[in-house]
């Protein structure tokens, strides 16, 4: 007869339960992970205990993560010494090589802890955003149907009209200005680029890019299985002849570029460069993906987009509001004509179905408020002060030759140090001293052509530019 039944007193149950637990712990210490433990039936017989008591003992060890039970198979040692070592080795075989690895994510996206001077980040400080307008717009949007409705697939009509109207300002002489129907709303510029690359090219195709260029565009192209063909540029546009050669040799149908205040160099195409490049695109039947990321960050001049005057649909235009309106309102637009737009729309829908109508409504509210224009005017002044102060510090402390261009807009200075300086190592040493910046290697599709780094002047407080650049000067010189 069993000494310990479910009807037995608590002390009998407990001692049997503890004895079973002790025995199992002893086995767990000795046996390798994955080994089978005695069955419930064996433990019942060994300890003259009820099945329920055996189950209680096992349950406790399962909760501690020491035992794993598999229904129908029994109980097994889960982790012998309290250290869980999962075996994900099978995934190496299953996945194969990565299209884009974690290194492809630029250091510009790193989070900065307190006390650090963030010259690496691409997202402006709160005092450069229309914070009051954004908060009010979010409260208002919460009271509209957009807070509970599904948005149309291409985006809210008012927002699409706003983006189209921005490309066709009153009085402009464009032959065929884009209309609201040419606009697809996306959740940020990054997803717009991913969709364009996937929709307009096939894995294995080539895509031409300026070098250096935005790391996120390179990552999106690689993720889409595209082969990047770099063409060099200095402080202006790439040479039209180089573009023509690269397109001819690679068979690429896409050219990704930032004609206005390019990230990271700050380069701005001149009107002669624009017409030379446009002529090549037309002659070769190629799309220009015009990434107008810095539209709202003109300092000495406004942006005049190529997409505003593009009757044949060679320009696929991307404009994001996430940096100028609010990084929390991730709203951007793709503007394109003809079948290209339809393909991009399909890709967006397959990927995301639609963009939050609530965020789109808040964006419309900010953009149609008279305060938006006055915000942009204030922003221009603030960016001018920041850019000039950073340029002064760089030239004064790192040498005049380290800055080939003071950009006429945008958020960054592209700094060159002496050849042979390992800027990745410099970034590591500067980070240890509380200064973050983005090393040049992040921005080149192939080997960097020199020792460059990018300093962003839109996030850290301007009074910290002087000590931050002093740290860099001390580490580099
Ligand atoms: C050149 C450029 N394009 C596109 C993006 C993507 O912007 P977002 O997805 O924040 O709209 C960025 C962000 O840093 C950028 O620098």
Describe this structure in words.
The protein is α/β, with parallel strands linked by helices. It contains 15 helices and 14 strands. Helix 10 links the parallel strand 7 and strand 8. Mean pLDDT is 91; it is low at 1-11. The chain binds pyridoxal-5'-phosphate. Pyridoxal-5'-phosphate (PLP) binds next to helix 7.
List the helices and strands and how they pair.
Layout: H1 10-30, H2 40-47, H3 51-63, E1 67-70, E2 74-77, H4 89-95, E3 117-118, H5 131-142, H6 157-167, E4 183-186, H7 189-200, E5 206-211, H8 215-223, E6 227-232, H9 240-250, E7 254-257, H10 271-284, E8 287-291, E9 315-320, E10 332-335, H11 339-352, H12 357-367, H13 370-398, E11 412-416, H14 423-432, E12 435-436, E13 438-439, E14 452-456, H15 465-476
Parallel strand pairs: 3-12, 5-6, 5-7, 7-8, 8-9
Antiparallel strand pairs: 1-2, 4-10, 9-10, 11-14, 13-14
Helix pairs in contact: 1-3, 2-3, 5-12, 7-8, 7-11, 9-10, 13-15
The protein binds pyridoxal-5'-phosphate.
């Amino acid at each position: 007869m069993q000494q310990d039944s479910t009807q037995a007193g608590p002390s009998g149950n407990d001692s049997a339960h503890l004895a079973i637990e002790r025995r199992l712990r002893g086995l767990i210490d000795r046996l390798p992970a994955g080994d089978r433990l005695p069955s419930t039936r064996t433990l019942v017989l060994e300890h003259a205990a009820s099945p329920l008591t055996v189950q209680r003992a096992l349950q406790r060890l399962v909760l501690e993560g020491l035992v794993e039970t598999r229904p129908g198979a029994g109980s097994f040692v889960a982790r012998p010494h309290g250290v869980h070592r999962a075996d994900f080795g099978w995934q190496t075989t299953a996945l194969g090589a990565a299209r884009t690895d974690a290194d492809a994510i630029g250091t510009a996206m790193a989070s900065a802890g307190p006390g650090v001077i963030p010259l690496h980040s691409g997202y402006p400080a709160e005092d450069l955003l229309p914070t009051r307008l954004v908060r009010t717009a979010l409260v208002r949007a919460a009271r509209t149907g957009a807070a509970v409705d599904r948005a149309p697939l291409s985006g809210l009509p008012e927002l699409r009209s706003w983006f189209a109207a921005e490309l066709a300002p009153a009085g402009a002489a464009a032959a065929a200005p884009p209309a609201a129907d040419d606009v697809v709303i996306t959740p940020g510029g990054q997803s717009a680029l991913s969709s364009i690359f996937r929709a307009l090219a096939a894995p294995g195709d080539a895509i031409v890019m300026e070098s250096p260029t935005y790391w996120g565009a390179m990552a999106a192209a690689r993720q889409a299985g595209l082969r990047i063909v770099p063409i060099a540029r200095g402080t202006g546009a790439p040479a039209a002849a180089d573009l023509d050669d690269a397109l001819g040799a690679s068979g690429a149908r896409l050219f990704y570029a930032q004609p206005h205040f390019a990230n990271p160099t700050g380069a701005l195409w001149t009107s002669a460069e624009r017409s030379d490049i446009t002529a090549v695109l037309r002659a070769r039947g190629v799309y220009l993906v015009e990434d107008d990321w810095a539209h709202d960050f003109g300092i000495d001049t406004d942006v005049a987009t190529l997409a505003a005057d593009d009757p044949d649909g060679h320009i696929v235009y991307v404009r994001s509001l996430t940096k100028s309106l609010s990084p929390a309102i991730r709203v951007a637009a793709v503007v394109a004509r003809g079948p290209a737009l339809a393909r991009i729309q399909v890709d967006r829908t397959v990927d995301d179905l639609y963009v939050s109508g609530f965020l789109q409504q808040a964006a419309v509210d900010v953009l149609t408020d008279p305060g938006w224009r006055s915000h942009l005017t204030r922003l221009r002044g603030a960016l001018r002060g920041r850019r000039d102060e950073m340029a002064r510090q760089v030239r004064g402390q790192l040498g005049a030759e380290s800055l080939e261009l003071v950009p006429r807009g945008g958020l960054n200075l592209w700094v060159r140090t002496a050849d042979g300086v390992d800027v990745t190592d410099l970034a590591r040493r500067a980070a240890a001293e509380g200064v973050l910046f983005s090393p040049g290697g992040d921005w080149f599709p192939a080997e960097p052509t020199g020792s460059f780094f990018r300093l962003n002047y839109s996030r850290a407080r301007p009074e910290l530019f002087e000590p931050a650049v002093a740290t860099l000067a001390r580490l580099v010189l």
